[in-house]
Batch of 2 targets.
Target 1
Amino acid sequence: MNTQLFEQVDFVENPVYEQVITSLLDQKYAIVDDFFNTEEIEELRESLKTVYEADCFKKAAIGNKFNEEIDTTIRGDFIKWINEAEGRAEERLFFTKINDLVAYLNRTCFLGILQKEFHYAVYPKGTFYKRHLDTFQNDSRRKLSMVCYLNDASWLATNGGELTLYLPDETGEQALDIIPRPGRVVIFESQILEHEVKPVLNSERLSITGWLKTR
């Protein structure tokens, strides 16, 4: 029996994922405003708030697990790692969607993504994350960085907290400011694009941030 033929017949093109792939190929980043629906975003936001109010977050560090260091002059967010197997129901639904994306990328683009890591992130007023690259000298497994914004519908652009991507071009580079609108997902190449989180001027900036990793 030709199993390859059946695999081809079963494949269904996903327009949102195709948009992600096209954008990554063309410009090394993708911005998607309908990756999660409104109800899913609201559930994830409430899950984050519940965990945050239970004082389960910790001050985010710089570096990897072998040389972590807390430096508030570089980053000031608070994080809580989320676990696919042991997480809340809302978090498991989040990972279901991420796993579907990973399977699609591996099948269509042969990226070889085998691992993932995600955490909640809260940036209180006045905090930021200075310009950096999402990879380490002794660990280059991060392939794609991903941010899903969980701010509520009342979030204003004047609140700050933009994600700034530094895009190489013929003249050197171009800075792209991305407003953390609720439900917006940003995906970009971890080893290529330097980026920063601009200071939060009002309210709290809420998100899930993570990485899709090769072996």
Note: The chain has one domain: 15-213.
Target 2
Amino acid sequence: MPKPDPRVLARTAGNYLKEHPEEIVRALRSALGLRASIPMDALRYLAREFVPDNKKAPKDIVIEAAPPGIRVAATVDAMGTPLRASLIVHIEEIDISLTEMRIGVRIEGLTLTVLGDSSSPLAGLLKSGALDLSKPGNLVAFMPKRPPMLVEAKDDRLTLDLMKVPKIAENPKVRRYLSIALPVASVRAIRTKDDHLDVHLKANIGGLPQAIAAARQTV
């Protein structure tokens, strides 16, 4: 995966704001309401620029707001079977601490369309309708190689813990920033609205001394 260049990201963001000055007003209004409003265009840019270009990576990624969730579609290769996958992701649980970054998501409207004339076992199951796509969590639970961050999968719900990813858990900057931010702010909800991803925050002024102490320790 290409490594993000902060200068390129800053330049791209600046150009975007020049073309969409209304985003500045929205950002200020959102900040007053303790929200961070991220244009879906930003997510599309990240997917376009930083998803690796190899055979196993998703192709033709589409990201759209489906309030309050996010609709994602992509062409993927699953067990040698080319598929067009589409689903809506609802973020229903967020629990972030110094030891866990748990995110509970609900999957809605999953469709898997076989591309071409594949005759693989998976293609046969999908074409016959034998797989219950209304409960994707049950399908994921039987994956032979589940990613470490997937801690629970049942029915239409998946629970992820990003701290199970070594690059995140072992990154000293992550723990440093969390120790400063968590005493004063937490994420209450993540929803889409008007082609934006809104991160709703909850402030705790009482935790300010702890955050200041943590900031001083990291200097």
Note: The chain has a mean pLDDT of 92.
